[in-house]
Amino acid sequence: MCPSKVAEGDERGWIVPIGGAEEKEHDPRILKRFVRLCGGRDANIVVIPTASRLEDTGPRYEKIFTDIGAAHVTSLNFSTRADGDNEGWLERIAHATGVFFTGGNQLRLSTILGGTRAAKMIRQANAAGVTVGGTSAGASILSEHMIAFGTEGSSPRADSVRLAPGLGLTNRFIIDQHFRQRDRLGRLVTALAYNPFSVGIGLDEDTAAFIGPDNTLDVEGSGAVTVVDAEGAEFSSMAQADENDPVCLIGLRVHILVRGATFNLHTRRASAGLLQPS
User: Fold this and answer.
1) CA within 13 Å, CB half, 128
2) Catalytic residue selected from 4, 178, 198, 236
3) pLDDT band (50, 70, 90) for residue 4
4) The CATH number of 15-261 is which of 3.40.50.880, 3.10.20.30, 3.40.5.60, 1.10.10.2840?
5) Catalytic residue at 236?
6) How many CB atoms sit inside 10 A of residue 278's CB?
7) Is the distance from CB of 80 to CB of 86 less than 8 angstroms?
8) Which end of the chain has fewer beta carbons closer than 10 Å to its terminal beta carbon, N or C?
9) Could you tell me the CA-to-CA distances from 27 to 17, 99, 208 in Å, in that order?
10) Is the per-residue pLDDT at 274 higher than 70?
C-alpha cells in the first residue's frame, strides 16, 4: 500500500511504533506522550485490537487511555473483512484524533483490514494530521513493507524473514519489535537486503520511535532503537544466496539510539540529541 498524499499546506500526523510490552501502570510515559499528541484531554482515540485474540485487549486499552486522561476512547475490534466497511465504525474513525493498534499477530491485521475502506481511511487520516501508533504487531503493520514472520538470530539468512504488505502509512522504514529480547537483528537485516531503500528500525520492548511530520525519529522509553541503514551498501549476496544460505552484506550503517537521541529518515543522519554534553 502506498502512503496517502499529504495535501498542500497540511502536515502528516505522527507515526508511533512501540516495541511491545510498554509500561502501562507505574510510569506509562510512552502512552502518555501518545495521548498528548492526540490532543491530551481532548483526545479522541480509536483502539483497534484486531491483532489480538484476547477479548479483553480492547477494553484494557480503553481503560488505560481513559485513566491517562483521553476524553473519548473506543475499541473497534474488526474481526471480518466486512467490518472494514461498517459505516458506523468508519464514522468513528473519521472523528478520531488518534488511532492505536494493539499487539498480537500482524497477519490478522493485514488479512482482515488490508484493502478495506477502514485501512484507506486510516492512511488518509494520518496524511491529514491524525496520530497513528501501535505496539508489537501493531507497530509492524504501520509501514508499507511489513515483517510477517521470521526466525531469530543475529546473522542474516536468505530464508530468515517473510514480508507482506502493511498498512502503508510510510515507505521509509521497516519495523521489527521485541528486538533485543527476541534476537531479531538477522531478520531485520535480511528484510533490508531485499529492499535497501527502506531504513530498518528495531524496537526493544518498552521503547518507541516517535516519528514526526518532518520524518525525524526520536526515542522514548527504557530500551534502545536499533537503526540499520542500507542505503550505502556496497555489496549484497542476496541474489546469489540459496534459501538456507547466510547473506553477505557490506557497507551497512548501524546506530543504537536511546531516549533523547534522533534519526532523520530523510537525511539519514543520527544525533545523540539531548544526550549530547552541553
Assistant:
1) 13
2) 178
3) confident
4) 3.40.50.880
5) no
6) 2
7) no
8) C
9) 18, 21, 14
10) no
Residues 6+ apart with CB under 8 A from 240: none
Q: Which of 154, 150, 178 is nearest to 163 (CA)?
A: 150
Which of 22, 62, 205, 220 is catalytic? The answer is 205
pTM of the model: 0.97
**81 touches 53 (CB < 8 A):** no
**205 in catalytic set:** yes
- When pLDDT is cut at 50, 70 and 90, the band that residue 276 belongs to is very low
Q: Is 178 noted as a catalytic residue in this protein?
A: yes
Helix axis angle for 29-37 and 57-68, nearest 10°, is 80
* Confidence at residue 1, expressed as pLDDT on a 0 to 100 scale: 59
Please provide the average confidence, as pLDDT, over all residues in the chain. Answer: 95
pLDDT band at 125 (very low <50, low <70, confident <90, very high): very high
pLDDT at residue 73, as a whole number: 98
Task: Determine which one of 75, 136, 198, 236 is catalytic.
Answer: 136
Q: Which pLDDT score, from 0 to 100, does residue 275 have?
A: 59
The residue count of the chain comes to 278
